[in-house]
């Protein structure tokens, strides 16, 4: 924590979400003054800069973690693309209009903005911050593939932010950094509701009771606590300005199943065996998360530890649910 943290105020959008809660609570723990927002009366429409007018007074730093998540849109542009793009631009417009004291914006984007889903698992390929999801806006509007549209929305929204920074570079008093996490696991900050788990943790929980180990589709992971740590480290590091940070490492579901079955007796009859030991990480693309280690000094939580703490919490929540009946 820097010496002037106590004079700095952090706005965290999307603070009620899985990642946003960890960021807000970690910031409070580190001594920040935190202003947390959700889409509510305080921020009725996060796609419009006017929505932030009354909450940016005194804010010196912003973490933008609010973003739409919809894998089954009825209208690709209206339901996914435009909310993602306009929501990302709105926080920048709000900062320059209503937050003259803002000096840093950190956007929580996604590995979805980096991965080229059309090329599958790409064994031997390593994704880094240099990569971009190549789907265009028109392609994203036309496709019937909901996940592909979502991935494109993350890429298009992030590109729009970088373009905005370049177009306004002579007048912008703040910097932009972007965090790109893949699947995010790890315990919720508070006890979770098993019926409303975020998509990544829900996918992990579905291993319990699954008949087979599911095929790997999104082959990367990072611990939610590491995402929050990366944000805190970026807030205190001038070298983070103007950079993307791809977080985490590769993942496959067979390896996850192997670890869970080994660590939990309760998983022996509930998590499918699959082909133990055959979930070799070299069968999927690699994720190069070293820039966050090198620039920010981030130390990653190992997959084994992340899965253990996540499953412990989920099993505890399940027991609590049973006891409530």
UniProtKB/TrEMBL annotation:
Domain of life of the organism encoding this protein: Eukaryota
Protein name: NADPH-dependent methylglyoxal reductase GRE2
SUPFAM superfamilies tied to this protein: NAD(P)-binding Rossmann-fold domains (SSF51735)
Single GO MF annotation: oxidoreductase activity, acting on the CH-OH group of donors, NAD or NADP as acceptor
Any Pfam family matching the protein: Epimerase
Domain NAD-dependent epimerase/dehydratase: 11-247
Annotated organism of origin: Fusarium oxysporum f. sp. cubense
UniProt keyword terms in alphabetical order: Oxidoreductase
Family that this chain belongs to: Belongs to the NAD(P)-dependent epimerase/dehydratase family. Dihydroflavonol-4-reductase subfamily.
